[in-house]
Automatic annotation (TrEMBL), chains A, B, C, D:
<comment type="similarity">
    <text>Belongs to the Gfo/Idh/MocA family.</text>
</comment>
<dbReference type="InterPro" id="IPR055170">
    <property type="entry name" value="GFO_IDH_MocA-like_dom"/>
</dbReference>
<feature type="domain" description="Gfo/Idh/MocA-like oxidoreductase N-terminal">
    <location>
        <begin position="3"/>
        <end position="123"/>
    </location>
</feature>
<dbReference type="Pfam" id="PF01408">
    <property type="entry name" value="GFO_IDH_MocA"/>
</dbReference>
<feature type="domain" description="GFO/IDH/MocA-like oxidoreductase">
    <location>
        <begin position="131"/>
        <end position="251"/>
    </location>
</feature>
<dbReference type="GO" id="GO:0000166">
    <property type="term" value="F:nucleotide binding"/>
</dbReference>
<dbReference type="InterPro" id="IPR000683">
    <property type="entry name" value="Gfo/Idh/MocA-like_OxRdtase_N"/>
</dbReference>
<dbReference type="InterPro" id="IPR030827">
    <property type="entry name" value="Myo_inos_IolG"/>
</dbReference>
<dbReference type="InterPro" id="IPR036291">
    <property type="entry name" value="NAD(P)-bd_dom_sf"/>
</dbReference>
<protein>
    <submittedName>
        <fullName>Inositol 2-dehydrogenase IolG</fullName>
    </submittedName>
</protein>
<dbReference type="GO" id="GO:0016491">
    <property type="term" value="F:oxidoreductase activity"/>
</dbReference>
<keyword id="KW-0560">Oxidoreductase</keyword>
<dbReference type="Pfam" id="PF22725">
    <property type="entry name" value="GFO_IDH_MocA_C3"/>
</dbReference>
Amino acid sequence: MVTVGIIGAGRIGKVHVQSISNNVPGAKIKTLADPFMNDETAKWAEGMGIEKVTKDYKDIINDPEIQAVLICSSTDTHAPISIEAINAGKHVFCEKPIDHDVNKIHEVIDALKGKNLKYQVGFNRRFDHNFRAVQAAVAAGKVGDPQIIKITSRDPEPPSPAYVAVSGGMFMDMTIHDFDMARFLAGCDAEEVYVQSAVLVDPEIGKAGDVDTAVITIKMKNGALVVIDNCRKSVYGYDQRAEVFGSKGMAAITNDAQSNVTVSNQDGVTGEKPLFFFLERYMQAYSDEIKSFIDAVENDTETAVGIEDGLKPVLMAMAANLSVKEHRPVKLSEVE
Amino acid sequence: MVTVGIIGAGRIGKVHVQSISNNVPGAKIKTLADPFMNDETAKWAEGMGIEKVTKDYKDIINDPEIQAVLICSSTDTHAPISIEAINAGKHVFCEKPIDHDVNKIHEVIDALKGKNLKYQVGFNRRFDHNFRAVQAAVAAGKVGDPQIIKITSRDPEPPSPAYVAVSGGMFMDMTIHDFDMARFLAGCDAEEVYVQSAVLVDPEIGKAGDVDTAVITIKMKNGALVVIDNCRKSVYGYDQRAEVFGSKGMAAITNDAQSNVTVSNQDGVTGEKPLFFFLERYMQAYSDEIKSFIDAVENDTETAVGIEDGLKPVLMAMAANLSVKEHRPVKLSEVE
Amino acid sequence: MVTVGIIGAGRIGKVHVQSISNNVPGAKIKTLADPFMNDETAKWAEGMGIEKVTKDYKDIINDPEIQAVLICSSTDTHAPISIEAINAGKHVFCEKPIDHDVNKIHEVIDALKGKNLKYQVGFNRRFDHNFRAVQAAVAAGKVGDPQIIKITSRDPEPPSPAYVAVSGGMFMDMTIHDFDMARFLAGCDAEEVYVQSAVLVDPEIGKAGDVDTAVITIKMKNGALVVIDNCRKSVYGYDQRAEVFGSKGMAAITNDAQSNVTVSNQDGVTGEKPLFFFLERYMQAYSDEIKSFIDAVENDTETAVGIEDGLKPVLMAMAANLSVKEHRPVKLSEVE
Amino acid sequence: MVTVGIIGAGRIGKVHVQSISNNVPGAKIKTLADPFMNDETAKWAEGMGIEKVTKDYKDIINDPEIQAVLICSSTDTHAPISIEAINAGKHVFCEKPIDHDVNKIHEVIDALKGKNLKYQVGFNRRFDHNFRAVQAAVAAGKVGDPQIIKITSRDPEPPSPAYVAVSGGMFMDMTIHDFDMARFLAGCDAEEVYVQSAVLVDPEIGKAGDVDTAVITIKMKNGALVVIDNCRKSVYGYDQRAEVFGSKGMAAITNDAQSNVTVSNQDGVTGEKPLFFFLERYMQAYSDEIKSFIDAVENDTETAVGIEDGLKPVLMAMAANLSVKEHRPVKLSEVE
């Protein structure tokens, strides 16, 4: 039984609390910390069987009983808290991205050196039943050598322009998952990124210096060509698809819906639209990523999504940003 | 090149004219006969390259150049014209049903005895790409021994009560295709039929002594259980599906639509409804059945749908009618 | 917070323990009883946060703190324990079927009279996301008046002949869910049942006096025709589909799979087979039925599946058995 | 009735002969010309009802009875024969591409000026039932403003390196259809093209100076982003899909197969792979494009795919080639 502390009681922190309480029998949450901890959250935490709540995350860092920390606080705190937790000898699960600044990620990498501590980054989609199945098909050789990889990722509704201004922009806060997926499905790193982008959803996003629609072409080190298409707003809901085409065939996945009911009438045959957003689509994945992390801690094995997996997509996002700025293909080596 | 005469220039007669003109290079239509032949039809026939039109089908029977006759006239004339054509030494393709009265069908069987003439019955669905594929899967052993066979057959719009009164009723004019399909997919004959039926579409059909909705259970001689569901009115169009479940798996087919486009929006994901009715769904099948008939004539091989295949579904329809009347399962041996 | 006792720690009892622990925040399991309670189960129960385990279900009946009882013991004990629990003032959730003998079910009905106690029967499929969606479409009028209802229900592997001998047979242990589904989807009771059945899977099942394959036709009181097809063995897994066809359209559902991945290669386009069996397919439904029961207890509302819903499918199974025996359609009024 | 001459009796010439004979009642082929005309082809042509065959296409140009010419000869002859036919006062249907050299296309444009002659280019996919349906959905406003357009186009087998050397390369001989489709679906012209390409199928294609796999990003003048993915070899057959995503939804199409049969067994649920190649997939489209051309001639209306539609994709292919050469995004204005 792994004793866990969770730092950050926002939306994703609460998701992990629920996952662990309901679906991760090997872990027990001792403490939940949040600078804005209030009575409501404290009561909810008690109902979830959490022993202690606090406003000060150091209560977790300094608790010798706590073996593993989940960092779900704001992005700018991910790296420094990671380092504090590592130095306190704790295993770390950190939400993505570790940081927008690769130097800070390298500091975390340095902190981990020589310590036998587990570090997992929150790329939850790798644990989704569909993405996992397409990757398994590729890994099993069913498509042969990957040649073209297509990833569609569209959100149901755009963030506020205010959020975009601090999030690092679309490539850093949204596409980062797709960059990770490209590496996961191709089984290797990226070599070059080119972005064709536009502001088609909300001019305010453009004024905030970001884009809201993009087609991103990536050349992977194994020669596979990846294309990611993103949009901040899809009226039919969260669109999360992928396909890997290769020398022996193609593996493809599509969206999930609440049910598979279809209604046929004079207007056609109508099924349900995709599940609304990430909380609906990826709840099973959130559970499974934490299970996987706890398993790695318990069995002293590699985490499924290590610190390098946290670094690489940030580099890809940086290359994407540079590609937009200079309107040209950008090699990863230029930003590393 | 087989020289053909077509008797009957109604809807289905015209379908066969077009099929032969466009898609059956091995056949040439010399004469088209119809008691109601008029200028419009005559002109149309000329445009299709037909040499001669006539009101008297005997012009076809008596023409020594004509090798094969397609009988597309009203059902009550199918058997007598078949016999005339056979006696004139012509191969016959006859629309279904040959007759509502099995005695008349037996007269045709008797007429064929000892003559090397081809006789094919117009069960076009056997030539449909989907039904053919499901049957091929069964024949290739992909489902093992058939255990449960399901056939859905629903028309987009009911016939007039007047038509029902002369058609022999739903089992004889509509389900007859499904009875044939049951034999085609099971690969054997029926043993017993039970009908649960209702008048749910049009009370006038009930007043005419017929039903418009039915679930028909059939026990086949190889032990497979067949269920056919019929309705005279399906608002989303012609519904023509089948599945064969067996010891090694299941083969299933569904409807065709005009295109496979789907539109996703806030209301769901909508595809096109099935093709409207038999002319839309089965045009390829109508062509292929005539090609098959002409091939049998040219190569002196068995027709794909012989005279026995014309008889058996009529017996099944009779058993179905008796089942409705006496509200009990009826053995085929009771009506043979 | 409703305090619950669970009687029976077999497969389905454990499913409910897990559901409540993980997904029903409004309930707390105090006691788990099973005549074969052993150390392993006791330890597992402790891990699930259950306060007490016992071999004697009376420890639950007699515990004044326990408000609701889940009866997951063998079928023959369902009715007597239901009555004991009711007399002790407890709400009851009872697995299906309540009993094979309608008289015993009537005794439970009598016991409930005049008491404001909730009684829910374990027809879990009503809570499955797909079946719920098709029923919701029907209830919303999207198909108009139901005319033909089709239910496919095939198990991945047959039970042992020994099980069949005590289970009450296929109609009582397996089709009972489909009988319930017929009522759920049609929105009314059955009037008449006809069965065409066979032994096609395992001759030993036949020797035990049961069938393993059946097509069941039902006439509902609202005129809709229902057809259920059952087989004890489907090599591609648990096949659980339904469609409701009516005057305004059709609502249909199909199976769920572990993922929606497809692999395209020279052999075709292959997707995953359906989820293996009920534990895989219906875990969400098991959770939701208990949530619904607890809600009914907490809010003093009708249970979603009441005692009458437990009685009616048993009558339908009896009619089905009589239909097999006498090979004729059987009215429900004959067995009531 | 339009009298037609066909120049070129290769594969596509024969397709048009068959289409007109079988499915275009408004046209009559008088003459078929091919420099390699032989007895076999002559006999076949006679069987198709063609009056005259010749080795000299000038027999068509100089025949005053012939109103319309179909140019199906080798690409290098498209432009000069077009001009000869135009100067002879004939309507022209010309296979794609008109030429690899835009100057030659401009000469055809000049030749057409001031003459009321119809000119149609053979972009057959615009007439395919699926592509037509997705375009119709876009044109009907069902997706709102197009934002992301995805076109997948993969051939079942690569051409010989020898062919590639003379075809103008992949962008000119294969992607040219997708460039046309981008314009058709977006409803406007392209502004900029970027290509990420590779030689992953056959190194000999690389040695011949071409690529065999590519992801092409296009910015359209209305702001929509288009991505085309191409591969010269898809083991599961011809892959021809598209989707248009916009402010109000998405319209998408997928492949057609020979039938929709699926076989379910312990290995999964398997459907047929896509139709093998363009002759299988687009036969209906080939027919309909000629019907449309003949209609335009008969009714003196605009052709559905005019000379400008023939020019623009060639410019896009030139931009694509330049993008590969200089590894950068290329504006259409650079090649016009």
